[in-house]
């Protein structure tokens, strides 16, 4: 009698684990609706409709949060809007899904340079170089952007003749 309750508990555990595992999709299989929304976002970005692209891509990620290309494209839209901090976060989300994504590493490196984090961008460049065994256009592009450095920003002062700047 003592063993029957333990055996019953073990059987129930085995049944519940096996059914939950068989009901899940593999990590590399992205929902078709999410892929369709990704294409709509890509078309909207190409047409210059950044708001429409953002809406479609965010919906694609709501449908399937494992859609790494949607994270990358949404990060590119954020960069087009001069939001490098948001782009860095979105590239990080893509890299959590696939740490060896060269395109995401390059994009994040570019956004890091825009924010002035050149040292971290060089770390991304080193990762890209270890992933690419031969000539790698992503490494060459990121090297050029790092060499150029972050954009120079200056404070604009509205100064009329005869007035003192405050």
Task: Write up what this structure looks like.
Helix content is 70%, strand content 0%. It has helices spanning 2-22, 32-46, 50-63, 68-80, 84-97, 102-115, 118-131, 137-148. The protein is extended, with a radius of gyration of 24 Å.
| Helical segment count | 8
Flag low-confidence runs. Answer: 18-25
Distance between the amino and carboxyl termini: 87 Å
How much beta, percentage-wise?
under 5%
Order of helices and strands: HHHHHHHH
Instruction: Please give the oligomerization state of what you see.
Output: single chain
- Mean pLDDT across the residues is 82
Tell me the number of strands. 0
Question: What does the main sheet amount to?
Answer: none
Indicate the structural class.
mainly alpha
Radius of gyration: 24 Å
What global shape is seen? Answer: extended
Residues in helices, as a percent range: over 70%
Which features does this protein show?
166 residues, mainly alpha, 8 helices, extended
Topology:
Layout: H1 2-22, H2 32-46, H3 50-63, H4 68-80, H5 84-97, H6 102-115, H7 118-131, H8 137-148
Question: Can you give me a brief rundown of this structure?
Answer:
This protein has helices spanning 2-22, 32-46, 50-63, 68-80, 84-97, 102-115, 118-131, 137-148. It is 70% helix and 0% strand.
């Amino acid at each position: 009698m003592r063993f029957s309750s333990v055996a019953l508990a073990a059987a129930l555990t085995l049944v519940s684990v096996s059914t939950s595992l068989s009901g899940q999709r593999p990590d590399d299989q992205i929902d078709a609706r999410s892929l369709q929304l990704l294409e709509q976002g890509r078309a909207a970005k190409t047409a210059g409709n950044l708001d429409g692209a953002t809406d479609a891509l965010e919906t694609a990620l709501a449908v399937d949060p494992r859609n790494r290309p949607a994270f990358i494209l949404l990060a590119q839209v954020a960069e087009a809007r001069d939001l490098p901090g948001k782009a860095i976060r979105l590239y990080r989300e893509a890299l959590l899904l696939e740490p060896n994504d060269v395109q995401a590493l390059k994009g994040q490196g570019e956004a890091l340079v825009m924010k002035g984090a050149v040292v971290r961008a060089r770390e991304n460049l080193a990762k890209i170089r270890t992933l690419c065994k031969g000539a790698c256009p992503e490494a060459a592009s990121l090297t050029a952007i790092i060499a150029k450095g972050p954009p120079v920003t200056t404070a604009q002062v509205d100064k009329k003749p005869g007035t003192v700047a405050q």
